Amino acid sequence: MSSQSSSIGRRGLLLSVGASGALFALGWGASKVESAPVIRPPGGQDNNFLSRCIRCDRCRSICPTNVISIGGLADGVLNLRTPVMNYRYGSCDFCDKCIEVCPTGALTAYSGETTPVGKARLTDICIALRTRACTKCKEACPYDAISLAEGKVPVIDNDKCNGCGVCENICPANVLQAYTGRNQRGIEILSLEALKAQEQS
């Protein structure tokens, strides 16, 4: 065997071992890292979603409002490349198109009228909390889930809110706070898991 062939053989062996080690580490990490609380498209609230989703991207591609995005590292290892709701880009009108194109049943029959995908919560940069000068979320909510208390402070009705995200999408607070480098809205949609964790803490 020539020295060149021997060198190629050793290099191939090292690459194979390295690749196997990387895959093992990734698999081990995925089994240890808990899924971050994200909001799934309608019909993806089932506990079996991750085992059924094949990351085909069909739901995101067909979404007419662009609210469906793709999970990144910040969403946790288990959520990589899976569909998540991003209300910075749009809101959900529960058209069911994402459910119709899902090839594996990861997204199942769903009614936005009866089951929420998340719930709205005010944040500390809400303009109305500080100046009483904004009513955008109340005016935009298609489910009348937001009213104004005395002093024009938004109040969210949890029984009516279904997490459509119109309020977060339209909120102007992040624009007014742009000089600070913050990207937070004055009202945000939280996953049901995140809300439950908040209540228990």
UniProtKB/TrEMBL annotation:
An example molecular function term from Gene Ontology annotations: 4 iron, 4 sulfur cluster binding
Gene3D superfamilies: 3.30.70.20
Keyword annotations of the record: 4Fe-4S, Iron, Iron-sulfur, Metal-binding
InterPro entries: 4Fe4S_Fe-S-bd (IPR017896), 4Fe4S_Fe_S_CS (IPR017900), PSI_iron-sulfur_center (IPR050157), TAT_signal (IPR006311)
Domain 4Fe-4S ferredoxin-type: 43-73, 81-112, 118-151, 152-181
Stored Pfam families: Fer4_7
PANTHER family in UniProt: PHOTOSYSTEM I IRON-SULFUR CENTER-RELATED (PTHR24960), POLYFERREDOXIN PROTEIN VHUB (PTHR24960:SF85)
Protein name: 4Fe-4S ferredoxin
Species of the source: Turicimonas muris
